[in-house]
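Supplementary Methods, section 5.1.

A reviewer requested that the exact input to the structure prediction be made available. We therefore reproduce it here, unchanged from the version used in the analyses.
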Amino acid sequence: MSHAELSLPGEFACEEIPILDLGPYLADEAGALERLATELRHAQENVGFYFSVNHGIPRDLIARTHANLVRFFALPDAEKRRH
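The structure derived from this sequence is encoded token-by-token as follows.
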């Protein structure tokens, strides 16, 4: 597991975000599932979030999904509750 360093002020200046590399798992490398599971558990229990890399999700799908999330959260609360 690697980490990305954040540029945060004060007490958060030394925090790191775990980066989980799904490539070895997707390539069916021996032991990759167990390593990824260990890294994921650590990230979720100790940090609360993480980055995923080499996941194979196309960049355009990520961009469209993000745009739809932005659109949804810009709606008034009453409109969001209808969905």
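The chain has one domain: 2-82. These observations are discussed further in the main text.
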